[in-house]
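so im writing up the methods section and need the Cysteine-rich domain-containing protein record in one place, dumping it here so i stop losing it
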Amino acid sequence: MPTVGLFIPCYVDQMYPHVGMATLELLEQLGCKVEFPTAQTCCGQPMSNTGCTDEAKPLARKFLDVFADYEYIVAPSGSCVSMVRHHYDELVHDDKRLVPTQKKTFELCEFIVDVLKVEKIDRPFPHRVGLHQSCHGLRELRLASSSEVMGPPFGKTRQLLASMAGIELVNLERPDECCGFGGTFAVSEEAVSCMMGDDRIYDHEKSGTQVLTANDMSCLMHLQGIIARKKKPLRVMHVAEILAGHSV
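--- predicted struct ---
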């Protein structure tokens, strides 16, 4: 039974705690022993992305203090995991715990496919589902193939969803385009951010999506805001909720 330190992003903890609970449920359903260290804080991504690296450094060291001794660290967020795996080098490169911790930090679906070797989620989800591929998960964690790279297509999250009974995964015209959120980009470039979000929602509507899902609640938060303001008939669910068996 693998022991997992559950790493929950700030916005999930504060605004979407049900996504954290779904992640816990799913990991336990798959046979993991899960612990939630209450001393965890922000990974430092918002500060780092805005250029405030000095402010991000103590948060990176705090992450290592909290999680370095776990067998695995798992989070329902590609962007936060990408921060640890690809951007902590410039913050805490002198800490000998860094590389071992990076190697055992995983996004949720990545962990299920690559570590637990799960091939099928044995529960139904009879809905038309549109999968949004978040940028960090796609192009830094390589959770799926991207359209600009030649090679056989693959998708770890899509693979898990496709194994569920009754599900119909829709095919988007632009399956790996950014939603426009980008953290502080959505604040500094609000108009562009919203136009990009409109484009993604239009693609899902045209493709017949009933439930829009993703690995990152940050992307879904942005898209859900646009959907709500424009009163679109789309339901938004994090992939952990679907895989854990939550209903629409």
